[in-house]
Every structure is written in structure tokens, then in C-alpha cells.
Amino acid sequence: MSHQKQTFKIAAIPGDGIGVDVTDAAKRVLDTLAKVNGTFAFEYTTFDWSSKAYLDRGWYMPPDWQDQLKKHDAIYFGAVGWPDVPDHISLWSMILPIRNCMNQYVNVRPTKILKGTTAPVAQLQKKPADLDWIIIRENSEGEYAGQGGTTHGHSDHAIATEVAIFTRVGIERIMRFAFETAKSRPRKKLTMVTKSNAQRHGMVLWDKVFYEVAKEYDGVVDYDKMLVDAMTVRMVNRPESMDTIVATNRKYSPSIPCH
Q: Is-contact 202 162, C-beta < 8 A?
């Protein structure tokens, strides 16, 4: 019995620099995988939303960028940024609006030592099995939420403010995702990263919601809490002591207009 091959529509945004190289290579890998499997295929639409194009025409994405991307099943993004364009322009003109307006609130980053490679922690005689993490970062709120402004910006009395954003809804959904991820992994262990000792409002709420959600996983997931300062040391000295990690975001803005 023959089955109809499923085709996934991919919006490819190579962007700048190594993003172009990585995207091209990954497409070859994906197409090879599809060919070997035989039950699915990929159809790519490439968007030239690069810094070079920005310098030529004055914009990264057209006004209808959302409508164009929503026609696809997934977005494959390379990288954005170029020496001739300030970082706050390239980031806030493309990748951040995409994350915000399309509600991409989870950033999942697997981290491990691949066979045949040497990691910096090798000097501590760590084995590949000692480093196998899933880092889950909140992708829609946090310290760099883009809330704030500048007053008297062109004078000696300039005042600039940045306000971190922490909502119960945003925290709860990322914590629940993190606990479910930890639950699905063999070790069933979750480490929460915080800075509530210094950030006494937003991150205190972050901690509070974490422990509220944790009650639902008592006896199922082993969890602990680390201040970010100590976490960096633990990551290097005792990577084998962690498995799934959840932390806040530092470069995403809920204030970006979507239209």
C-alpha cells in the first residue's frame, strides 16, 4: 500500500554571515534525511531579510512579513547581525519581532559533548556522559523586555531605564514546560536558575511560581534552585549534577508592535 508523502513548507531566513552557511548545510542534511526516510519532503521558501538587503533598501522585513511566514509549517532562521548595522537595529528589526508576534515563548537548547569532540571541561576530566543538558529559556519576557525609555537623551542629564517584565502567565507556562521536559527525560531532574536575591520583585515572583508548579511534580521530578552566579561555577565544575535547566530570557521584547 502506497502512502502519500507529506511535504513540510519551511520559511528559510539565512540572514547574515555564518547564518547563510549553516542554513545551506542544514538544508542538505534535511533533504538527505527526507530522501532516506521516504515518507516526507521539505519545500523551502527563502527570504532575503539580511543586513546587506537592509543597507540597500532601508528595511529588514516588509509590512506583511507575518502573513508570509504564517503560510509555512516552520521557520528556519540562520543569524542576523553585521558590523555595518548596529545590533539593536538588526535584532529588533527581525528576530525579536518574529519571536514576539508569533508567541515563541520557549527557547530549547540541548547541550552535550558530542562523540569525537573535545569540550573545554575536558581539562576537568569530564566525560561526554557528564554533560547532557536541556536548557530551557523563557523567550518572551524577562530582564531585557524592552520596557523603558530615554529622557533628555541629547543632554548631559540623559536618563535611560530598562524594566524587566515578569507575568504569572508567562512564568507558569515556561515552568510547566520545563517540568514536563524534565519528566520526559531519564534522570527526571530540573534546576531552576534565579537572581531573586537582588531582583526582589520580578524574580521573587519567578521563584514563587516555580515552587507552586513544582508541587504538581513532587515525587516525579527532582528539582533544585541556583542563583545564577553560583550556577556558572556549577556548570563548569559539576556539569554531571544537572540535566534540565530553566532560566529567564535576556533578549526579547513584549512591547514590539506586530504590525
A: no
Residues 114 and 65 in one domain: no
Using the CB atoms, write b or e for 35-67: b if 16+ within 10 Å: eeeeeeebeeeebebbbebbeeeeebbeeebee
In this model, does residue 252 exceed pLDDT 50? Answer: no
- Are residues 217 and 149 located together in one domain of the fold? yes
Same domain (yes/no): 121, 26: no
Do 133 and 203 have their domain in common?
yes
Q: How many CB atoms lie within 10 A of CB 160?
A: 10
Which region among 104-108, 138-142, 148-152 has the lowest average model confidence (pLDDT)? 138-142
* Maximum pairwise Cα distance, the chain: 76
* CB-based contact 106:76 (threshold 8 Å): no
What phi-psi label fits residue 15: left (phi over 0), alpha (psi between -120 and 50 degrees) or beta? left
Specify the higher pLDDT residue, 53 or 113: 53
Chain-centroid distance, C-alpha 78: 13
Average of per-residue pLDDT values in the chain: 90
The 3-state secondary structure of 161-216 reads EEEEECCHHHHHHHHHHHHHHHHHCCCCEEEEEECCCCCCCHHHHHHHHHHHHHHH
Q: Within this chain, do residues 9 and 127 fall inside the same structural domain, yes or no?
A: no
Question: What is the mean predicted confidence (pLDDT) over 172-191?
Answer: 98
pLDDT of residue 204: 95
Residue 236 contacts residue 133 (beta carbons within 8 Å): no
| Structural domain range at position 69 | 1-102
Rg of the chain on CA atoms, in Å: 21
119 band by pLDDT with thresholds 50, 70 and 90 = confident
CB 12, CB 46: distance < 8 Å: yes
